[in-house]
Fold each of these.
Amino acid sequence: MSRILVAYFSASGVTKGIAAKIAAELGADLFEIVPERPYTKADLNWLDKRSRSTVEMKDRSCRPGIAFRVVDMEKYDTVFLGFPVWWYREPSIIDTFMESYNFDGVKVIPFCTSGGSKIGDTWKNLQELAHGATILAGARIPARASAAEVRAWAEDHL
Protein backbone atom coordinates (compact mmCIF):
# COMPACT_ATOMS: atom_id res chain seq x y z
CA MET A 1 0.00 0.00 0.00
CA SER A 2 1.47 3.34 -1.06
CA ARG A 3 1.87 6.11 1.49
CA ILE A 4 2.37 8.57 -1.38
CA LEU A 5 -0.48 10.18 -3.23
CA VAL A 6 -0.21 12.13 -6.47
CA ALA A 7 -3.29 14.38 -6.63
CA TYR A 8 -3.75 16.64 -9.61
CA PHE A 9 -6.12 18.95 -11.45
CA SER A 10 -5.63 19.11 -15.20
CA ALA A 11 -7.60 21.39 -17.49
CA SER A 12 -5.97 20.36 -20.78
CA GLY A 13 -4.29 17.04 -20.00
CA VAL A 14 -0.73 18.33 -19.59
CA THR A 15 -0.71 18.15 -15.79
CA LYS A 16 -2.37 14.73 -15.98
CA GLY A 17 0.56 13.43 -18.02
CA ILE A 18 3.16 14.64 -15.51
CA ALA A 19 1.11 13.34 -12.57
CA ALA A 20 0.86 9.91 -14.18
CA LYS A 21 4.65 9.83 -14.67
CA ILE A 22 5.28 10.73 -11.02
CA ALA A 23 2.84 8.09 -9.79
CA ALA A 24 4.28 5.41 -12.08
CA GLU A 25 7.89 6.21 -11.20
CA LEU A 26 7.27 6.24 -7.44
CA GLY A 27 4.65 3.49 -7.26
CA ALA A 28 2.28 6.08 -5.79
CA ASP A 29 -1.50 6.26 -5.83
CA LEU A 30 -3.03 8.65 -8.36
CA PHE A 31 -6.09 10.86 -7.78
CA GLU A 32 -7.64 13.29 -10.25
CA ILE A 33 -9.25 16.39 -8.76
CA VAL A 34 -12.38 16.55 -10.90
CA PRO A 35 -14.58 19.66 -10.72
CA GLU A 36 -18.26 19.09 -9.94
CA ARG A 37 -19.00 21.25 -12.96
CA PRO A 38 -16.46 20.54 -15.72
CA TYR A 39 -14.68 23.49 -17.30
CA THR A 40 -15.58 24.18 -20.91
CA LYS A 41 -13.22 25.75 -23.42
CA ALA A 42 -15.10 29.05 -22.95
CA ASP A 43 -14.69 28.74 -19.15
CA LEU A 44 -10.92 28.53 -19.61
CA ASN A 45 -10.58 31.55 -21.90
CA TRP A 46 -8.28 33.69 -19.80
CA LEU A 47 -8.62 36.56 -22.30
CA ASP A 48 -12.34 36.86 -21.45
CA LYS A 49 -12.75 38.82 -18.22
CA ARG A 50 -16.16 37.18 -17.72
CA SER A 51 -15.00 33.58 -18.22
CA ARG A 52 -15.54 31.23 -15.30
CA SER A 53 -11.84 30.74 -14.64
CA THR A 54 -11.14 34.48 -14.68
CA VAL A 55 -14.01 35.20 -12.30
CA GLU A 56 -12.90 32.41 -9.95
CA MET A 57 -9.31 33.58 -9.90
CA LYS A 58 -10.24 37.19 -9.15
CA ASP A 59 -12.20 36.07 -6.08
CA ARG A 60 -9.69 34.56 -3.63
CA SER A 61 -12.59 33.14 -1.57
CA CYS A 62 -13.98 31.14 -4.51
CA ARG A 63 -14.04 27.39 -3.88
CA PRO A 64 -15.23 25.37 -6.89
CA GLY A 65 -16.77 22.05 -5.91
CA ILE A 66 -14.93 18.75 -6.34
CA ALA A 67 -16.83 15.73 -7.67
CA PHE A 68 -14.99 12.97 -5.76
CA ARG A 69 -13.10 12.59 -2.47
CA VAL A 70 -9.86 10.77 -1.73
CA VAL A 71 -10.69 7.57 0.15
CA ASP A 72 -8.57 7.13 3.30
CA MET A 73 -6.62 10.37 2.89
CA GLU A 74 -5.20 9.81 6.37
CA LYS A 75 -3.04 6.91 5.11
CA TYR A 76 -0.84 9.26 3.07
CA ASP A 77 2.16 11.01 4.57
CA THR A 78 3.33 12.56 1.28
CA VAL A 79 1.17 14.24 -1.34
CA PHE A 80 2.46 15.47 -4.67
CA LEU A 81 -0.04 18.13 -5.75
CA GLY A 82 -0.22 19.06 -9.43
CA PHE A 83 -2.00 21.81 -11.30
CA PRO A 84 -1.66 24.24 -14.20
CA VAL A 85 -0.65 27.78 -13.27
CA TRP A 86 -3.58 30.18 -13.57
CA TRP A 87 -2.97 33.88 -13.04
CA TYR A 88 0.45 33.16 -11.49
CA ARG A 89 -0.88 30.80 -8.82
CA GLU A 90 -2.77 27.57 -8.22
CA PRO A 91 -6.34 27.33 -9.55
CA SER A 92 -9.08 27.90 -6.96
CA ILE A 93 -10.10 24.24 -7.12
CA ILE A 94 -6.72 23.41 -5.53
CA ASP A 95 -7.68 25.67 -2.63
CA THR A 96 -10.90 23.66 -2.30
CA PHE A 97 -8.87 20.45 -2.23
CA MET A 98 -6.47 21.73 0.43
CA GLU A 99 -9.30 22.84 2.70
CA SER A 100 -11.13 19.52 2.31
CA TYR A 101 -8.66 17.37 4.27
CA ASN A 102 -6.54 17.37 7.40
CA PHE A 103 -2.92 17.70 6.28
CA ASP A 104 -1.36 17.73 9.76
CA GLY A 105 2.05 16.06 9.53
CA VAL A 106 1.79 15.57 5.77
CA LYS A 107 4.50 16.66 3.35
CA VAL A 108 2.91 18.38 0.34
CA ILE A 109 5.05 18.77 -2.77
CA PRO A 110 3.43 21.05 -5.34
CA PHE A 111 4.24 20.82 -9.02
CA CYS A 112 2.80 22.80 -11.86
CA THR A 113 2.67 22.89 -15.61
CA SER A 114 2.68 26.07 -17.61
CA GLY A 115 3.75 27.47 -20.92
CA GLY A 116 6.15 29.76 -19.12
CA SER A 117 4.90 30.87 -15.71
CA LYS A 118 6.73 29.53 -12.68
CA ILE A 119 5.13 28.16 -9.51
CA GLY A 120 5.94 31.37 -7.64
CA ASP A 121 4.80 31.66 -4.03
CA THR A 122 2.08 29.04 -4.35
CA TRP A 123 3.57 27.16 -1.40
CA LYS A 124 2.73 30.15 0.84
CA ASN A 125 -0.90 30.07 -0.29
CA LEU A 126 -1.07 26.32 0.31
CA GLN A 127 0.51 26.65 3.76
CA GLU A 128 -2.23 29.08 4.77
CA LEU A 129 -4.84 26.53 3.67
CA ALA A 130 -3.22 23.50 5.32
CA HIS A 131 -1.92 24.42 8.75
CA GLY A 132 0.23 21.64 10.17
CA ALA A 133 1.44 20.46 6.77
CA THR A 134 4.96 20.83 5.49
CA ILE A 135 4.59 22.52 2.11
CA LEU A 136 7.66 22.48 -0.12
CA ALA A 137 8.34 25.21 -2.67
CA GLY A 138 7.73 22.84 -5.58
CA ALA A 139 8.53 23.51 -9.20
CA ARG A 140 7.25 23.83 -12.74
CA ILE A 141 7.79 20.62 -14.67
CA PRO A 142 7.99 20.91 -18.46
CA ALA A 143 5.30 18.99 -20.36
CA ARG A 144 7.98 17.09 -22.28
CA ALA A 145 9.95 15.99 -19.21
CA SER A 146 11.05 12.38 -19.50
CA ALA A 147 10.08 9.73 -16.97
CA ALA A 148 13.70 9.70 -15.75
CA GLU A 149 13.70 13.51 -15.26
CA VAL A 150 10.38 13.36 -13.42
CA ARG A 151 11.61 10.51 -11.22
CA ALA A 152 14.83 12.37 -10.33
CA TRP A 153 12.88 15.50 -9.40
CA ALA A 154 10.31 13.58 -7.34
CA GLU A 155 12.91 11.50 -5.50
CA ASP A 156 14.85 14.68 -4.62
CA HIS A 157 11.73 15.94 -2.82
CA LEU A 158 10.83 12.84 -0.82
Amino acid sequence: MKEQKIRLQKHLSECGVASRRKAEELIAAGKVKINGHPASVGDKVDPIRDKVTVAGKPVIAVTQKVYLMLHKPRGYVTTVSDELGRKCVADLVSDCKVRVFPVGRLDKDSEGLLFMTNDGTFANELMHPSRHVNKTYRVTVSGEVSDEQVVTLSTGVMIDGRKTQPCDCFVVDRKPDRTVLMFVIHEGRNRQVRKMCEAVSLKVLRLKRTEIAGVKLGMLPQGKWRELNEKEMRRLTNIGTNKKGTEV
Protein backbone atom coordinates (compact mmCIF):
# COMPACT_ATOMS: atom_id res chain seq x y z
CA MET A 1 0.00 0.00 0.00
CA LYS A 2 1.36 3.39 -1.03
CA GLU A 3 2.37 5.72 1.81
CA GLN A 4 0.27 8.86 2.12
CA LYS A 5 2.83 11.48 3.09
CA ILE A 6 2.13 15.18 3.50
CA ARG A 7 4.33 18.15 4.32
CA LEU A 8 5.17 18.41 7.99
CA GLN A 9 3.90 21.98 8.39
CA LYS A 10 0.56 20.96 6.82
CA HIS A 11 0.30 18.04 9.23
CA LEU A 12 1.01 20.28 12.23
CA SER A 13 -1.56 22.78 10.99
CA GLU A 14 -4.24 20.14 10.45
CA CYS A 15 -3.57 18.74 13.93
CA GLY A 16 -4.23 22.13 15.48
CA VAL A 17 -0.66 22.75 16.66
CA ALA A 18 -0.28 26.07 14.86
CA SER A 19 -0.86 27.81 11.55
CA ARG A 20 1.42 26.67 8.71
CA ARG A 21 3.57 29.78 9.02
CA LYS A 22 3.98 29.32 12.76
CA ALA A 23 4.60 25.60 12.22
CA GLU A 24 7.48 26.45 9.89
CA GLU A 25 8.93 28.70 12.60
CA LEU A 26 8.70 25.86 15.14
CA ILE A 27 10.44 23.49 12.71
CA ALA A 28 13.19 26.01 11.92
CA ALA A 29 13.73 26.57 15.66
CA GLY A 30 14.45 22.86 16.11
CA LYS A 31 11.39 22.20 18.27
CA VAL A 32 9.89 19.53 16.00
CA LYS A 33 11.04 15.93 15.68
CA ILE A 34 9.97 13.05 13.43
CA ASN A 35 10.47 9.62 14.94
CA GLY A 36 12.96 11.11 17.39
CA HIS A 37 15.02 12.95 14.76
CA PRO A 38 15.13 16.76 14.29
CA ALA A 39 12.85 17.86 11.44
CA SER A 40 13.52 20.32 8.64
CA VAL A 41 11.14 22.63 6.78
CA GLY A 42 9.91 20.69 3.75
CA ASP A 43 10.03 17.25 5.38
CA LYS A 44 7.08 14.96 4.75
CA VAL A 45 5.38 12.61 7.20
CA ASP A 46 2.89 9.77 7.17
CA PRO A 47 0.26 10.98 9.67
CA ILE A 48 -0.56 7.39 10.63
CA ARG A 49 2.89 5.78 10.84
CA ASP A 50 5.24 8.60 11.84
CA LYS A 51 5.54 9.89 15.41
CA VAL A 52 5.81 13.69 15.46
CA THR A 53 6.60 15.69 18.58
CA VAL A 54 6.71 19.44 19.28
CA ALA A 55 8.86 20.49 22.23
CA GLY A 56 8.79 16.87 23.36
CA LYS A 57 4.99 16.56 23.29
CA PRO A 58 3.36 14.14 20.82
CA VAL A 59 1.17 15.60 18.07
CA ILE A 60 -2.31 14.10 18.12
CA ALA A 61 -4.61 14.25 15.11
CA VAL A 62 -7.69 16.47 15.38
CA THR A 63 -10.94 14.55 15.73
CA GLN A 64 -13.19 17.50 16.58
CA LYS A 65 -12.85 20.88 14.91
CA VAL A 66 -13.53 23.96 17.02
CA TYR A 67 -14.05 27.59 15.97
CA LEU A 68 -13.98 30.33 18.59
CA MET A 69 -14.41 34.07 18.88
CA LEU A 70 -12.26 35.73 21.56
CA HIS A 71 -12.41 39.30 22.86
CA LYS A 72 -8.67 39.89 23.27
CA PRO A 73 -7.73 42.45 25.92
CA ARG A 74 -4.69 44.70 25.74
CA GLY A 75 -1.54 43.25 27.23
CA TYR A 76 -1.79 39.78 25.65
CA VAL A 77 0.39 38.54 22.79
CA THR A 78 -1.28 36.61 19.99
CA THR A 79 0.57 33.34 20.43
CA VAL A 80 0.02 30.01 22.19
CA SER A 81 3.25 30.42 24.18
CA ASP A 82 5.88 33.10 24.73
CA GLU A 83 9.56 32.67 25.55
CA LEU A 84 9.59 36.03 27.35
CA GLY A 85 6.90 34.92 29.77
CA ARG A 86 4.30 37.42 28.55
CA LYS A 87 0.57 36.72 28.81
CA CYS A 88 -0.72 34.81 25.76
CA VAL A 89 -4.20 34.56 24.23
CA ALA A 90 -3.97 30.80 24.81
CA ASP A 91 -4.27 31.55 28.54
CA LEU A 92 -7.71 33.02 27.92
CA VAL A 93 -9.05 29.86 26.25
CA SER A 94 -7.42 27.35 28.59
CA ASP A 95 -10.88 26.12 29.59
CA CYS A 96 -11.68 25.13 25.99
CA LYS A 97 -11.98 21.36 25.61
CA VAL A 98 -9.36 21.23 22.82
CA ARG A 99 -6.13 23.05 22.01
CA VAL A 100 -6.66 25.97 19.63
CA PHE A 101 -4.41 28.56 18.00
CA PRO A 102 -5.09 32.15 16.85
CA VAL A 103 -6.12 32.97 13.29
CA GLY A 104 -4.04 36.00 12.31
CA ARG A 105 -2.74 38.52 14.82
CA LEU A 106 -3.54 41.45 17.05
CA ASP A 107 -0.51 43.16 18.56
CA LYS A 108 0.05 43.25 22.30
CA ASP A 109 -1.34 46.78 22.73
CA SER A 110 -4.44 46.17 20.60
CA GLU A 111 -7.72 44.57 21.59
CA GLY A 112 -10.87 43.16 20.11
CA LEU A 113 -12.02 40.36 17.85
CA LEU A 114 -9.75 37.36 17.35
CA PHE A 115 -10.69 33.98 15.93
CA MET A 116 -9.13 30.80 17.34
CA THR A 117 -9.40 27.27 15.97
CA ASN A 118 -7.76 23.88 15.64
CA ASP A 119 -8.63 23.73 11.92
CA GLY A 120 -5.49 24.65 9.99
CA THR A 121 -7.20 24.62 6.59
CA PHE A 122 -9.87 27.08 7.77
CA ALA A 123 -7.20 29.37 9.27
CA ASN A 124 -5.05 29.35 6.12
CA GLU A 125 -7.99 30.10 3.84
CA LEU A 126 -9.25 32.94 6.01
CA MET A 127 -5.79 34.56 6.21
CA HIS A 128 -4.82 34.10 2.55
CA PRO A 129 -4.24 37.50 0.84
CA SER A 130 -6.38 36.47 -2.16
CA ARG A 131 -9.47 36.38 0.09
CA HIS A 132 -9.41 40.18 0.63
CA VAL A 133 -11.12 39.75 3.99
CA ASN A 134 -12.52 43.00 5.38
CA LYS A 135 -11.45 43.86 8.94
CA THR A 136 -12.95 46.78 10.86
CA TYR A 137 -11.05 48.74 13.53
CA ARG A 138 -12.19 51.47 15.91
CA VAL A 139 -9.15 53.66 16.52
CA THR A 140 -8.83 56.50 19.03
CA VAL A 141 -6.04 58.97 18.24
CA SER A 142 -4.72 61.97 20.12
CA GLY A 143 -5.87 65.45 19.10
CA GLU A 144 -7.77 66.55 16.01
CA VAL A 145 -7.76 64.84 12.63
CA SER A 146 -7.99 66.92 9.47
CA ASP A 147 -10.00 66.07 6.37
CA GLU A 148 -6.72 65.90 4.49
CA GLN A 149 -5.38 63.22 6.85
CA VAL A 150 -8.56 61.16 6.44
CA VAL A 151 -8.33 61.37 2.64
CA THR A 152 -4.66 60.36 2.74
CA LEU A 153 -5.42 57.36 4.93
CA SER A 154 -8.29 56.33 2.66
CA THR A 155 -6.31 56.54 -0.57
CA GLY A 156 -3.14 54.91 0.75
CA VAL A 157 0.10 55.75 2.55
CA MET A 158 3.64 54.42 2.31
CA ILE A 159 4.59 51.99 5.07
CA ASP A 160 7.61 49.69 5.00
CA GLY A 161 8.41 50.85 1.46
CA ARG A 162 5.04 49.90 0.00
CA LYS A 163 1.80 51.83 -0.38
CA THR A 164 -1.29 50.56 1.39
CA GLN A 165 -4.33 49.71 -0.68
CA PRO A 166 -7.32 52.08 -0.62
CA CYS A 167 -9.56 51.55 2.41
CA ASP A 168 -12.56 53.07 4.15
CA CYS A 169 -11.58 55.58 6.82
CA PHE A 170 -13.90 58.07 8.47
CA VAL A 171 -14.41 60.04 11.69
CA VAL A 172 -17.05 58.69 14.08
CA ASP A 173 -16.46 60.99 17.07
CA ARG A 174 -14.58 64.19 17.86
CA LYS A 175 -13.53 65.41 21.30
CA PRO A 176 -11.30 68.38 22.20
CA ASP A 177 -8.34 66.14 22.96
CA ARG A 178 -9.01 63.06 20.80
CA THR A 179 -10.69 61.73 17.67
CA VAL A 180 -12.23 58.33 17.00
CA LEU A 181 -11.72 56.89 13.53
CA MET A 182 -13.18 53.81 11.87
CA PHE A 183 -11.01 51.83 9.46
CA VAL A 184 -12.14 49.04 7.14
CA ILE A 185 -9.14 47.39 5.49
CA HIS A 186 -8.66 44.14 3.58
CA GLU A 187 -4.90 43.76 3.87
CA GLY A 188 -3.14 41.88 6.64
CA ARG A 189 0.19 43.65 7.00
CA ASN A 190 1.97 43.72 10.36
CA ARG A 191 0.62 46.50 12.64
CA GLN A 192 -0.85 48.08 9.53
CA VAL A 193 -3.40 50.45 11.06
CA ARG A 194 -0.93 51.75 13.64
CA LYS A 195 1.70 52.34 10.96
CA MET A 196 -0.83 54.09 8.72
CA CYS A 197 -1.67 56.49 11.56
CA GLU A 198 2.02 57.09 12.23
CA ALA A 199 2.52 57.90 8.54
CA VAL A 200 0.18 60.90 8.87
CA SER A 201 1.51 61.93 12.31
CA LEU A 202 -1.38 60.57 14.37
CA LYS A 203 -0.72 59.02 17.80
CA VAL A 204 -2.84 55.95 18.51
CA LEU A 205 -4.31 55.86 22.02
CA ARG A 206 -6.52 52.80 21.57
CA LEU A 207 -7.08 50.29 18.78
CA LYS A 208 -9.91 47.76 18.78
CA ARG A 209 -10.89 45.30 16.05
CA THR A 210 -14.67 45.03 16.00
CA GLU A 211 -15.48 42.97 12.91
CA ILE A 212 -14.00 40.45 10.46
CA ALA A 213 -15.78 39.53 7.23
CA GLY A 214 -19.14 40.59 8.60
CA VAL A 215 -18.74 38.69 11.88
CA LYS A 216 -19.02 41.20 14.72
CA LEU A 217 -17.53 41.15 18.21
CA GLY A 218 -20.78 42.50 19.61
CA MET A 219 -21.22 42.49 23.38
CA LEU A 220 -18.79 39.66 24.16
CA PRO A 221 -16.99 40.73 27.38
CA GLN A 222 -13.28 41.43 27.30
CA GLY A 223 -11.20 38.32 27.96
CA LYS A 224 -14.12 35.98 27.22
CA TRP A 225 -14.72 33.57 24.33
CA ARG A 226 -17.57 31.72 22.69
CA GLU A 227 -18.01 29.31 19.80
CA LEU A 228 -18.90 30.77 16.41
CA ASN A 229 -22.50 30.03 15.43
CA GLU A 230 -23.72 28.47 12.19
CA LYS A 231 -24.55 31.81 10.55
CA GLU A 232 -21.11 33.24 11.35
CA MET A 233 -19.38 30.13 10.02
CA ARG A 234 -21.31 30.43 6.75
CA ARG A 235 -20.08 33.99 6.35
CA LEU A 236 -16.48 32.98 6.93
CA THR A 237 -16.47 29.85 4.79
CA ASN A 238 -18.24 31.60 1.89
CA ILE A 239 -15.39 34.10 1.50
CA GLY A 240 -13.90 33.77 -1.94
CA THR A 241 -16.93 32.00 -3.42
CA ASN A 242 -19.40 34.82 -2.82
CA LYS A 243 -18.38 38.38 -3.73
CA LYS A 244 -20.45 39.70 -0.86
CA GLY A 245 -18.58 37.52 1.59
CA THR A 246 -16.11 40.23 2.48
CA GLU A 247 -18.61 43.06 2.43
CA VAL A 248 -21.46 41.98 4.66
Amino acid sequence: MVSKMIEIYCRKNHNTKRGELCSECKELNDYARLRSDKCPFMKTKTFCFDCSVHCYKPEMKEKIRRVMRFSGPRMIFYSPAAAIRHLFEQIKKKFRLKNK
Protein backbone atom coordinates (compact mmCIF):
# COMPACT_ATOMS: atom_id res chain seq x y z
CA MET A 1 0.00 0.00 0.00
CA VAL A 2 2.69 2.47 0.97
CA SER A 3 4.61 1.69 -2.24
CA LYS A 4 1.53 2.57 -4.30
CA MET A 5 1.17 5.85 -2.40
CA ILE A 6 4.83 6.71 -2.99
CA GLU A 7 4.45 5.89 -6.69
CA ILE A 8 1.44 8.23 -7.00
CA TYR A 9 3.29 10.99 -5.16
CA CYS A 10 6.41 10.60 -7.29
CA ARG A 11 4.51 10.48 -10.57
CA LYS A 12 2.52 13.62 -9.79
CA ASN A 13 5.26 15.64 -8.05
CA HIS A 14 8.45 14.47 -9.74
CA ASN A 15 7.01 13.71 -13.20
CA THR A 16 8.16 10.09 -13.31
CA LYS A 17 6.55 7.44 -15.49
CA ARG A 18 4.07 4.90 -14.11
CA GLY A 19 5.93 2.21 -12.18
CA GLU A 20 9.11 4.29 -11.86
CA LEU A 21 10.46 6.26 -8.91
CA CYS A 22 13.00 9.06 -8.69
CA SER A 23 16.02 8.40 -6.46
CA GLU A 24 14.53 10.24 -3.47
CA CYS A 25 11.24 8.34 -3.65
CA LYS A 26 13.04 5.04 -4.24
CA GLU A 27 15.05 5.65 -1.07
CA LEU A 28 11.84 6.39 0.86
CA ASN A 29 10.11 3.31 -0.58
CA ASP A 30 13.06 1.07 0.31
CA TYR A 31 13.12 2.50 3.83
CA ALA A 32 9.37 2.03 4.33
CA ARG A 33 9.50 -1.57 3.08
CA LEU A 34 12.45 -2.32 5.36
CA ARG A 35 10.58 -0.88 8.35
CA SER A 36 7.51 -2.97 7.49
CA ASP A 37 9.57 -6.13 7.00
CA LYS A 38 11.21 -5.70 10.42
CA CYS A 39 8.04 -4.70 12.26
CA PRO A 40 7.23 -7.15 15.08
CA PHE A 41 3.59 -5.96 15.15
CA MET A 42 2.80 -6.26 11.44
CA LYS A 43 0.63 -9.37 11.90
CA THR A 44 -1.69 -7.70 14.43
CA LYS A 45 -1.87 -4.03 13.42
CA THR A 46 -3.76 -2.54 10.53
CA PHE A 47 -1.80 0.67 9.86
CA CYS A 48 1.40 2.23 11.14
CA PHE A 49 -0.41 5.22 12.64
CA ASP A 50 -2.14 2.76 15.02
CA CYS A 51 1.18 1.45 16.28
CA SER A 52 2.48 2.26 19.76
CA VAL A 53 6.08 2.09 18.51
CA HIS A 54 7.09 4.63 15.87
CA CYS A 55 10.17 3.29 14.15
CA TYR A 56 10.69 5.89 11.40
CA LYS A 57 13.55 8.36 11.70
CA PRO A 58 12.17 11.93 12.05
CA GLU A 59 13.30 12.92 8.53
CA MET A 60 11.71 9.85 6.93
CA LYS A 61 8.60 10.24 9.07
CA GLU A 62 8.11 13.74 7.67
CA LYS A 63 8.64 12.53 4.11
CA ILE A 64 6.15 9.67 4.47
CA ARG A 65 3.67 12.05 6.10
CA ARG A 66 3.95 14.36 3.08
CA VAL A 67 3.44 11.43 0.69
CA MET A 68 0.40 10.15 2.57
CA ARG A 69 -1.17 13.57 2.83
CA PHE A 70 -0.86 13.96 -0.93
CA SER A 71 -1.66 10.41 -2.04
CA GLY A 72 -4.30 9.47 0.52
CA PRO A 73 -7.18 11.40 -1.05
CA ARG A 74 -6.17 10.19 -4.52
CA MET A 75 -6.16 6.49 -3.57
CA ILE A 76 -9.88 6.23 -4.31
CA PHE A 77 -9.01 6.70 -8.00
CA TYR A 78 -5.98 4.40 -8.09
CA SER A 79 -6.94 1.66 -5.64
CA PRO A 80 -10.60 2.03 -4.65
CA ALA A 81 -10.84 -1.23 -2.67
CA ALA A 82 -7.80 -0.33 -0.55
CA ALA A 83 -9.09 3.20 0.04
CA ILE A 84 -12.48 1.92 1.19
CA ARG A 85 -10.85 -0.68 3.44
CA HIS A 86 -8.68 2.01 5.00
CA LEU A 87 -11.71 4.23 5.63
CA PHE A 88 -13.63 1.29 7.11
CA GLU A 89 -10.74 0.46 9.48
CA GLN A 90 -10.56 4.08 10.65
CA ILE A 91 -14.30 4.15 11.35
CA LYS A 92 -14.05 0.83 13.20
CA LYS A 93 -11.22 2.15 15.36
CA LYS A 94 -13.14 5.33 16.23
CA PHE A 95 -16.19 3.29 17.10
CA ARG A 96 -14.16 1.00 19.40
CA LEU A 97 -12.55 3.99 21.15
CA LYS A 98 -15.91 5.71 21.58
CA ASN A 99 -17.46 2.61 23.19
CA LYS A 100 -14.69 2.00 25.73
